Each structure stands twice: as structure tokens, then as C-alpha cells.
Amino acid sequence: MSVLELEEIDVTYERRDRVSLKAVVGASLAVERGQIVGLVGESGCGKSSLARAAVGLVAPTAGRVRFEGHDVTALSRRARPRALTRLQLVFQNPYSSLNPRRRVGDQIADGLADGDARRAVRSRRVGDLLERVGLSAAAAKRFPSQFSGGQRQRIAIARALAADPSLIVLDEPLASLDASAQAQVANLLVELSRSLELGLLLISHDLAIVRHTADVVSVMYLGRIVETGPTREVWSAPLHPYTEALIAAVPRPDGSGTLPDALPGEVPDPARPPSGCRFHPRCPHRFSRCPAEEPVLERAFTARAVACWLPRDAVPTPPSQRAATARQEGFVPTHKGGTA
Predict the structure, then answer these.
(1) At how many degrees (to 10) do helices 149-161 and 119-132 cross?
(2) Which end of the chain is more exposed for a tag (fewer CB within 10 A), N or C?
(3) pLDDT tens digits, residue range 207-226?
(4) Above 80 in pLDDT, residue 179?
(5) 205-244 in b/e burial notation, b at 16+ Cβ within 10 A?
(6) Rounded to an integer, what distance in angstroms lies between the CA atom of residue 211 and that of residue 231?
(7) Which residues pair with 65 in a beta bridge?
(8) Buried b (16+ CB within 10 A) or exposed e, 10-39
(9) Does the predicted TM-score (pTM) go above 0.85?
(10) Helix 241-248 and helix 319-328, axial crossing angle in degrees, nearest 10
(11) Which among 191, 193, 219, 215 has a CA at the least distance from the CA of 205?
(12) Please, where are the H alpha helices in 197-339?
């Protein structure tokens, strides 16, 4: 059974100009114990809003949040902290998420599941948690300013582990770290997930990190999840043109890895999304149906789902190959860019 289930979540904000901004639209995903689910997409696509809806920091305007089998969507602010103790959140910036005026050990101890335990027991538990994330127990007596960014993020993870969680949501936890620290913390997350049977929802704009850590990946564009599936399968044979473009943009040792010329422009204003498929203004394979009708996320093959109007073959095939075949069959217009 999934430890966290998000069902058709909408998150809407009211801007100062009284325009409604739908940051998340109909997003669904699930995380099981011992599983790492990656949520990827460009900045501003709604990843963080979905994370905040999952942990109760923002109220979804539609949809349902289930945690450990219980519907926690409509819990009051008073009931929510008790019900969601085992659901923790690690923020992006470890320089601001830790209190600079309190010792590290005290901040970790605040979250201990056995908060009423004796001082010696609490101190020993804090030391164990610090060692669990690769730091020494003596670090408990120091202040956050005495640690590097990677070490601070380890401390933030230890603080989340103090509550004995079944799931941790990590909102861009590696974005502010250098490459070496990113690799170390990513390896730590995988080890913790496996050894503790801990579910992780890892939110990132870095597909390379997600590729090496996540078991399942969901790709988000302009508030909607457009593709989901096992990470290796998505990476080897993406089904959505946006996923294909993201993978193509990952830097490579030979210096390649830039957005292709066929993917121009920026992410549209979420307050004024395009008609039909939200990706169609930037899609190199679009055709007449794309601006007219919005595709829904539908199951494709065994464990894959995609929201795209391109025809799907009997085996997973990248969008560029499917579009070429479709053009030959007269399905997609053959003029430049495949546009309608």
C-alpha cells in the first residue's frame, strides 16, 4: 500500500491583480515505503506547490491527500501536526532552514518522536541520528554556521529522521550544494530509503540527479504531470516530447546537452495557460488536435502513463520517432516543425 497518495490535486493562488493562478492542475502520484519518487520539471512548473499541498503547508483547492491510508486533506490546523508527524519536509536551502542561534543537537531533539524521554536518552538519540547521516555525534554541540552547505543539509535530514517518519518530502534538497556535496547527499538519501524502508518524494529540476536516485519519475509541465513511469524506462524511451527535451538538455562529457532548436520559448504564464495541450506552443511535433484538446494522463504499456496526442506504438518509442512514423501515415502535417 502507498504511504502517500495524491489524487487529482489542484492548487490555486489568488494574485494581487485578482487573477487566479492554477499552480497545480489534476496532479496524481503515489509513494510506497522504501521507494524514491522523483518529481521533475522546469522552475515554476508547480513542483513545490504540489509538495506543500502534500505536507499541508497549502490547502489544495481540489483533490485528495492520503497518508498511511487516511484522508488528511480536510484536517484542521490543530489536528494536522499530530496526524502528519511521520510525514516530514526538507527544504531547499539549508542556510535558512536551520536556526543559526540554536545548537544543532537542540534543533534535532525538537523533532524526536520520544520527546518526553530523559535528557541522556535524547542526547544519545541525537548522536545516533547525526552518525546516521555521516556526521559525528559531537556535532550536536555546534552551531549551523560551523558547517558547510552539504553538512547542513545532512543535519536537516537528521532533524526530519528524528520524528521516525515513514515518508520525507524533499523540495530541491540538492539545488544549493556543489557537485561533490550533491553526490554525497544523493547517495545518503538512497541508503536511508533502502535501510529504513523510507518513502522519499524527491523534487528536483535536475534530471541527472533523479536518474541516479529515483525508482519512479513523474515529469511536470505548467502545473500538470505529463508523464510518469520507472526511471530507467522513462530515461531510455521517453513518451512525451517535453520529457524527451529535458533528457536531451542534460549536459554530457562531450559538451553536448542543450535544448534543441525545435523547443523554443519559455514556460507560459500559468495564469493564462495555452489552450489544449499546455506544451503545444513549444512542441516540435504538434498537430491540429494539440491546441484544440487537452490530453489526460493515460496508462501506456505496463507501468507508464503519458498525456500526449501522438499515437503510441506497441512498444515504448520516443516522440520524435513516433512523429516521423505518423507523418508518413498522414497523421501529422508534414510541413516544417509538424505544426498545424
Answers:
(1) 130
(2) N
(3) 888 999 999 999 999 999 99
(4) yes
(5) bbbebbbebbbbbbbbbbbbbbbbbebebbbebbbbbbbb
(6) 6
(7) 6
(8) bbbeeeeeeeebbbbbbbbbbbbbbbbbbb
(9) yes
(10) 130
(11) 219
(12) 207-213, 231-236, 241-248, 319-328
Handedness of CA 128, 38, 216, 62 (dihedral sign): positive
Instruction: Write down how long the chain is.
Output: 340
Q: Which three cell numbers stand for residue 252?
A: 554530457
pLDDT tens by residue, 156-177: 999 999 999 999 999 999 988 8
In eight-state DSSP terms, residue 259 is -
Quickly list DSSP for 13-28: EE-TTS-EEEEEEEEE
Strands 36-40 and 199-204: parallel
Question: Which DSSP category does 276 fall into?
Answer: S
Q: What is the dihedral of CA 15, 20, 24, 25, to 10 degrees?
A: 180
Exposure on the CB side of residue 153, measured as CA atoms within 13 A: 22
Q: What is the identity of the amino acid at 105? A: G
Residue 272: all three cell numbers together? 493564462
Provide the mean pLDDT of the chain: 87
Q: Contact 302/222 with Cβ under 8 angstroms?
A: no
Q: Which helix (H) or strand (E) holds 319?
A: helix 319-328
Q: How far is CA 297 from CA 18, 203, 277, 291, 320, in A?
A: 30, 20, 11, 16, 19
Q: Which grid cell sits at 185?
A: 547527499
